[in-house]
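#structure-requests
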Amino acid sequence: MTSESTKCYVYLDGKAIGTVKDGKAFAEEVRRNRRLGVISAEINVAYLKKLSEVHINADRGRARKAYIIVEDGKSKLTPEILEKIKTKEIDFNYLLRKGIIEYLDAEEEENILVALSADKITPKTTHLEIEPASMFGLTFTANVFPETNSAGRLPLASNHMKQSQGLYAVNFNKRYDARAYLLFYPQVPIITSVGYRTLKLQRHPAGQNFVIALSTYYGYNMSDALVLNKAAVDRGLGRSAFFKTYADEERRYPGGQQDYFKTPAATTEGYLGEHAYAKLGEDGIIEPEMNIKESEVLIGKVSPPRFLEEQTSFGVGEEKSRDNSVTLRTGEEGVIDSVMVSETTGATKIVKIRVRSIKIPELGDKFASRHNQKGVVALVADPKDMPFTKEGIIPDIVLNPHSLPSRMTFGHLLDMLGGKSGSVAGKHFDGTAFSMNGHDRIDQYSRLLEEHGYDKFGDEYLYDGRSGKRYSARIYTGVAYFNKLTHMVSTKLQVRSRGPVQILTHQPTEGKPRKGGLRFGEMERDALVGYGASLLLKERMLDQSDKAPIWICRECGDIGYYDHIKNLPVCPTDSGNNLELIEISYAFKLFLDEIKSLHILPRINLKSEA
């Protein structure tokens, strides 16, 4: 038996199962047996020297990564084995079974020394990376030069990739997706990566190669704002189509009643007026390629009444119906792209209608590069006012140079330099992480630019389109891959002067589809309080919100009501009529009612203004 101080505890999935004398030797024995196939390849073991503990993990949900095993300073993945993989004599599972490759979790990675490439193996090296870029994960490696950017920018850049518009499916015209975005002229980037090619994203391109100049432009592109070239926009830069699907079915109800697709009669309950149904066909469904605006009917539908029919004086139930038509949502317009009529599994008729609208880049639309350099369009400038090079090239985007050093996205500068050299040389480049030394990469791009008569760092003299004078400083220009994101101002723009209110609180409704107002929150209120604009605060939060005239009893302080038969206000508590009409927020009146539901009677004491 060992003494208490020299014991090394062994934990299995966090639970202590015993002790061993030499934790390091025990962990190595477990690894040896795993590589021989004696124990499962799913097991991971880590020796924590400082704690004198061995942790064995076999639970589900661990993130594990494959490494090539290195023994005696040599990789176990020999050229002969690599050749057999290429000829498909053996597969990846063979490498796992033979102990050439193993999966390690985060804890076991603490016990290893990994070489990024075979020429960097030392006598102490235990493992070799299969692909150095794989340490970032698949989505990060789809972007280029991730190792040159600040680490916090990588997940944000990956999110932008998911939000980008492009060719999401080849059979888009046969699909009825709830929402879909289709870029008109998607391009493959000049610089790609191993992750991009592995995911075959060139089959679903989601961006375009933009000519970019890093410069200010009369204050229009302050901070993250972008200045777009109107000529490029007119030629199709960033132009896309937005598809939205509306669907409905003829439901069946208990008692043999059901819905019907047809143009509702004028006697139908909730009839919207003749103009709303003007574009429907004979079957009550709109025809393809019709222009449609908000609140116009797409699918005419009548449903049975919510309640049983009333008996007429003759004792015969009158056949009533209510309008349950599908209309275009508030704030939207477009063209009917396609109409599909089918049946559900329950043999009921179903209709799906796809509405198409063309989205041309405008003020407020969002664009982003692959390096988390996002911005919204602040100006679509005429080409005659834009800066231009001596060859007459006008940049598609004028980007503020201050947005790059503050975010430490050096990859964006590399992207522009590589894109420019690839454009003039007609080449594609690889931007996979760690695939090339940074200086070698810049030298390669610079050499190509110099061969074609450009400055080796991509700087050019630009001429001001307004004055015609040459800028005194040289401007960094290049070509970078930009994504048009799904955040477009036309789908978010919302205006309301008056509109519906919620039944419960009497405050304006929320959200664009419900014709809602914009939320005036606590922080906005604090700004007005700090500024001392009390009347504006009252207007926003009372007059334009849920102002309610309430009768208050002067005697008991309870809320009263107005009796229209007696033509005077009445207090329900003491039956008196000494009441005063005051204006309060309806939310406060609701609060008083909720207190009453707790068997507490709140009282309001009134004082005269004098």
